[in-house]
Design brief:
There is one protein chain. The chain is mostly beta strands. It is built from no helices and 13 strands. A 4-stranded antiparallel beta sheet has the order 6-7-8-9, with no helix packed on it. A hairpin with a 4-residue loop joins strand 8 and strand 9. 31% of the residues are buried. InterPro entries: Host-pathogen_enzymatic-act, N2O_reductase_N, WD40/YVTN_repeat-like_dom_sf, YVTN_b-propeller_repeat.
Length: 150
């Protein structure tokens, strides 16, 4: 069984702590170089979502995570970012691999490698509204949030 580890609004497929630094600019022009502070991202929750995590897409406005994990059964797990619970499992095409979210329309796009399709999911209802045929073996997908194009 795969799991997602939730880091604030970030999601990783690991149970390990991540560390880094953040740098801020000066508060006003001429005020100096700003400051640097260490940041430690702590795992706040672990959510069981299925096996073989292939892709993750986050709709930060809706605080929803879409985990492409069910490659054998062709499903995507929907995780509520507030409660860290799986709220739905959406059937898509054969061997789903990648996902992307249009944050303006709350539309999710999932590539289905074996079916040569992209499933379009309504992020409000968590249902597939369309299945679009694309080239052979799609794996990645991206959305332009300004033009709402894939």
């Amino acid at each position: 069984m795969g799991a997602l580890a939730v880091l604030g609004f970030s999601v990783i497929n690991s149970g390990h702590e991540r560390a880094g630094t953040t740098t801020t600019g000066p508060s006003k022009p001429g005020a100096g170089p700003g400051s640097t502070a260490p940041v430690t991202h702590m795992v706040t929750a672990t959510v069981a979502v299925g096996s073989l995590l292939n892709g993750v897409a986050v709709d930060s406005g809706a605080r929803t995570v879409y985990a492409v994990t069910h490659t054998v059964s062709g499903r995507v797990s929907v995780v509520d970012g507030k409660t860290h619970k799986v709220t739905a499992t959406v059937p898509v095409g054969g061997t789903p691999v990648g996902a992307a979210v249009d944050p303006g329309t709350h539309t999710v796009y999932v590539t289905n490698n074996d079916d040569d399709t992209v499933s379009v999911i309504d992020g409000n209802t968590h249902t597939v509204t369309a299945t679009v045929r694309v080239g052979s073996g799609p794996s990645g997908v991206a959305v332009d949030p300004e033009t709402h194009t894939v």
